[in-house]
Design goal:
The complex is a heterodimer. Chain A is of the alpha/beta class. Chain A contains 19 helices and 10 strands. Chain A folds into 2 domains: about 10-190 and about 315-380, 3-Layer(aba) Sandwich (D-Maltodextrin-Binding Protein, domain 2); about 195-315 and about 390-410, D-Maltodextrin-Binding Protein, domain 2. The chains are: A alpha/beta, B mainly alpha. The interface of A and B includes residues 8, 395, 396 and 409 of A.
């Protein structure tokens, strides 16, 4: 659901705001946009609360619940997106340090996934040739993770090594269309796609995606360039379930949006650069990602995130073990370790996306009640029930959906 | 000595030719072949390309995206004219009147280039924001009422309008206009101007009959250096525009990088190059460098 498209150097550069959501801005400094670099520092400060205080104790506790296979490799590699784990100073990651201590291993933590499609491009040839890509866990967004499973590039998980995952994975993340049997993926973090708006500027509460078409907001509304997010939300507002949609449904959603684009109601299609527009008041209401709004609210408490009555979209970044990875035992051990609510809570206090792990909220509530009580980080059961996932498109559908959508966005 | 002089051209040409051959002509060849291929995707997302001499890639691309082609040339054309109108007086002043300030002024012309292109464009986003000082000031003097009526802006805002895109393109390529103009003006022999004044030309006539014709090579270079990249530009339209201001560069970008439809993207690129070549050769005829150098 994430943007994740390959980009040339120029595109990549401006994609930091426009095309890829997974970057510095998204995690840390969306508030002020690129130009207000200070926002970045501020957001880091507010996000990086008090984690890793009791390293020894947690490690001991974790070791008792995790499996500790005797044949753990002395080192292993974990590839993730930038700024997507608890961090102290520049490079210290308390949760990983505890893991290394408890399992007597060394984690090589790479923040080298900045875009689903371009990361895939980097390792595709090796995967095709059946080679080890020198990574034991990679974190990929739903649709890309689904693609890897389909292509046979993911190792099947050994559930017996993942008791914490079995016990603590929240039901909303079980049996998703991309991995119906939960055989390949372990959710890392999730986010919601809904409506971000400023009630002061809209003159009141919004309830539905259809409110974006209010003529009073002409030219003050943006939608997302991410096809699954924009079409998914509009489909929900039309009573169509994105988990079971057809090309005709996509066409219907595009037909619903098109007049709004042609009339100028829709100002732009954006990546996470809508954040700057929303903060500056160029935009009064827009399709938005929950994690961005959490960050924006630090600077502007007026902003609200709406889960429309008809439902919002849920996307997930998933851990998976690439085919022929050299150290699957370490990978399993880490996945299990992360699903200890205490460890998950430490990561969550820093990352501020949605945590798929049962008990993390409770583990966090004493230490950081502000984050534990934030419904955008720990949504209520009622909210979770109102979140929907996008179906796994077949290659043919993928082409047709994208073509319809690109024609709509004018590119 | 004679032999060396006669044959020195070849070794001198080699690096440039090799560079062009490897990094321009060879990829162009690949791209041309790609533009005539058909792509299919199998059930496991593997893409397969077959050369089917699919000329319809071209007709289809032009049929679907002719409005973006027209818009690109229109925006680039307006931006080039605007840049010329801004740059010529400036280059003139720097070349003839700046005295000891000449180098400082030239430095100021290129100073914006010390900042990343992207950052400059994003900064324009802040300048033109809906309740920025610039927007409010232009609205207060009625400018936006006029531009709204012309369809250059809408709802009394600048951002996400054609005006913002064209203005930013003008700004981003301005130096490419100023520098060639300055060079051609600077090398004009001042004695020619004195001679024309001696021959009873007034200042206006001296400018029109001496300065302007002698600066034409600069005009030619400056307009091409502005117009060509401006036509293919997509960053300004992407960051400051709306779905109604998408240029052909945006389409190519999205075809290459978002939908991975390489054949259509290649066909669009070749079509753009072809149109550009035709336009430039017509322009060269009218303002041709041969005539410029012989008059």
């Amino acid at each position: 659901m994430n943007t994740g498209r390959p980009t040339d150097p120029t595109a990549l550069a401006f994609a930091r705001g426009a095309l890829t959501r997974r970057d510095l801005l998204r995690r840390a400094g969306v508030a002020g946009g690129v130009l207000a670099g200070s926002g970045l520092l501020a957001a880091c400060g507010s996000g990086g609360s008090s984690s890793g205080s009791s390293a020894g104790g947690s490690a001991a506790a974790a070791a008792s619940v995790g499996t500790t296979p005797a044949d753990m490799a002395p080192s292993w590699t974990f590839s993730n997106w930038p700024l997507y784990i608890d961090t102290q100073g520049k490079t210290k990651h308390p949760s990983l340090d505890q893991f290394d201590k408890a399992f007597n291993t060394t984690t090589k933590y790479l923040e080298d996934i900045e875009d689903n499609e371009s990361f895939f491009g980097q390792v595709k040839a090796q995967l095709e040739a059946g080679q080890d890509i020198k990574r034991d866990i990679v974190v990929l967004t739903d649709w890309m993770a689904g693609k890897w499973i389909l292509l046979g590039y993911a190792e099947k998980l050994d559930k017996s090594a993942l008791p914490n995952v079995t016990a603590n994975q929240l039901p909303a993340w079980l049996g998703r269309p991309i991995d119906k049997g939960d055989e390949y993926l372990v959710p890392w973090q999730s986010g919601m796609t809904g409506i971000g708006y400023n009630p002061k500027l809209t003159g009141g509460k919004l309830t539905s995606v259809k409110d974006l078409w209010n003529p009073e907001f002409k030219g003050k509304v943006t939608l997302l360039t991410e096809m699954r997010d924009t079409l998914g939300l509009v489909m929900l507002s039309m009573g169509i379930d994105p988990a079971n949609c057809t090309v005709d449904d996509a066409q219907a959603a595009v037909d619903e949006i098109r007049p709004q684009v042609e009339s100028g109601q829709v100002r732009r299609f954006t990546g996470n650069d809508y954040a700057g527009d929303l903060a500056k008041g160029n935009v009064v209401a827009c399709m938005a990602w929950s994690g961005d709004i959490v960050q924006l609210q630090f600077d502007n408490p007026d902003l609200e995130f709406l889960i429309p009555d008809d439902g919002a979209m849920l996307w997930t970044d998933n851990m998976l073990i690439p085919k022929n990875a050299a150290n699957p035992q370490n990978a399993h051990a880490w996945m299990n370790f992360y699903y200890d609510p205490k460890i998950a809570a430490e990561v969550e206090a820093w990352v501020n996306y949605i945590c798929p792990i049962k008990g993390a909220k409770e583990a966090l509530i004493a230490k950081d009640p502000e984050i534990a009580d934030n419904p955008l980080i720990f949504p209520s059961d009622a909210d979770l029930a109102n979140l929907h996932v996008f179906k796994l498109l077949t290659p043919q559908e993928d082409l047709e959906f994208n073509k319809l959508f690109q024609d709509l966005t004018g590119a | 000595m004679g032999w060396l002089r006669k044959h020195a051209a070849y070794p001198l040409l080699t690096p440039g030719m090799a560079w062009l051959l490897i990094f321009f002509f060879v990829p162009m060849g690949f791209m041309f072949v790609k533009s005539l291929q058909t792509v299919t995707v199998d059930e496991t997302f593997h893409q397969h390309y077959t050369l089917t001499w699919e000329w319809s890639n071209y007709t289809e691309a032009i049929r679907t995206y002719h409005s973006q082609f027209v818009r690109s040339f229109l925006y680039a054309g307006i931006a080039t004219v605007a840049a010329f109108l801004i740059a010529y007086p400036l280059a003139y002043v720097i070349a003839f009147r700046a005295g000891r300030w000449k180098n400082l002024l030239l430095l100021l012309v290129i100073a914006p280039f010390f900042t990343n292109y992207l950052i400059r464009t994003l900064a324009w986003g802040t300048l033109l924001a809906d309740d920025s000082i610039v927007t409010r000031a232009l609205d207060a003097i009625g400018f936006l009422t006029v531009t709204d009526a012309l369809g250059w802006t809408s709802e009394h805002r600048l951002l996400a309008t054609p005006f913002a895109v064209v203005a930013a393109i003008t700004y981003n390529y301005l130096a490419f206009m100023i520098l060639p103009l300055y060079v051609s003006l600077e090398k004009i022999d001042k004695r020619l101007l004195e001679a024309s004044l001696d021959l009873y030309a007034n200042r206006v006539r001296a400018f029109l009959r001496v300065t302007l014709p002698l600066s034409l090579p600069g005009v030619f270079a400056g307009t091409l250096l502005t117009f060509i990249p401006a036509t293919g530009d997509y960053v300004n339209a992407e960051l400051l525009g709306s779905p109604q201001t998408k240029m052909i560069g945006n389409i190519v970008q999205s075809k290459f990088l978002v939908i991975n439809d390489y054949p259509t993207a290649s066909a669009l690129s070749f079509t753009l190059m072809a149109i550009m070549l035709v336009l430039i050769s017509i322009y060269a005829r009218i303002l041709g460098t041969e005539e410029v150098t012989t008059t």
